[in-house]
Design goal:
255 residues, mainly alpha, 13 helices, globular
Length: 255
């Protein structure tokens, strides 16, 4: 990939990561169909590009993170993150291992269909789980933490939006929408770190992608700010369903 392609891919990753539309699914589609990477390479690179969005979360929520670390023994948010992260790993790592094997042995069009179907599923879930509740993290219980962690673990599947799936899970547990967004942002940090560690063996593919990481970082900062301001007005379910349906139909036509 050349510099312009890297910057564009990074910007797309940064723009979509915190929108409930599956950044990994959409970036994988772009990498496979426009930049002609294999499904396996696209899967690996889409995960690694999350490093840029991780840095954005660290910068934007630095005060929250410092406060959590200072009061880790008593802070409810830290307890929520620890439990949900453990469940994310328990669920997500086995899925990652299976998917890695699958994407190394499937054709491009089949990969498109799989991602498209999961985009549709994400849209449907968002459509019926978008009502804001009343809970804050201080009101959470162990089941809230488990459900959020499992949802995030499942979202390692390309096409399943991490933010969308965790938001749907939290809203389903009656969390306030803005609070659910904040928790989802913070939950992304350990999940992204874990994904990058799993992709460390593919360093030859990602060694020259730092312009994309910078682009993803800058775009993510902007999106986080805007999303927190306009969260109650946004509905991404139709975007997911429409894009997924188009992807599936086109892939079936050219099989």
């Amino acid at each position: 990939m050349n510099l312009v392609e890297l910057l564009i891919v990074g910007a797309i990753q940064g723009f979509l990561e915190f929108l409930p539309v599956s950044s990994s699914g959409n970036v994988s589609l772009i990498l496979m169909n426009f930049l002609k990477l294999t499904p396996s390479e696209s899967f690996s690179l889409s995960i690694f590009l999350h490093l840029g969005t991780l840095l954005a979360v660290l910068v934007y929520f630095r005060n929250d993170i410092i406060n959590i670390l200072k009061n880790i023994k008593t802070d409810k948010t830290s307890h929520f993150l620890i439990v949900s992260t453990i469940l994310t790993g328990v669920v997500g790592v086995p899925i990652y291992i299976v998917l890695k094997s699958i994407f190394e042995n499937i054709q491009l069009d089949i990969g498109n269909i799989i991602i498209g179907l999961f985009l549709i599923a994400t849209g449907i879930i968002l459509k019926y789980r978008s009502k804001s509740g009343f809970k804050k993290v201080e009101d959470s219980n162990i089941w809230d933490m488990i459900v959020a962690g499992v949802a995030q673990g499942i979202s390692i599947i390309p096409g399943i939006s991490r933010s969308g799936f965790t938001l749907a899970a939290l809203l389903g547990r009656d969390f306030d929408k803005e609070e659910a967004l904040r928790i989802s942002f913070l939950m992304s940090m350990p999940a992204i770190i874990g994904g990058i560690i799993l992709e460390a063996n593919d360093i030859t593919l990602v060694a020259n992608t730092y312009p994309a990481l910078i682009s993803a970082f800058i775009t993510s900062i902007i999106v986080i700010k805007l999303l927190l301001e306009f969260a109650k007005r946004l509905n991404f379910s139709y975007f997911c369903i429409g894009l997924g349906a188009i992807t599936v139909v086109i892939s079936l036509l050219i099989l």
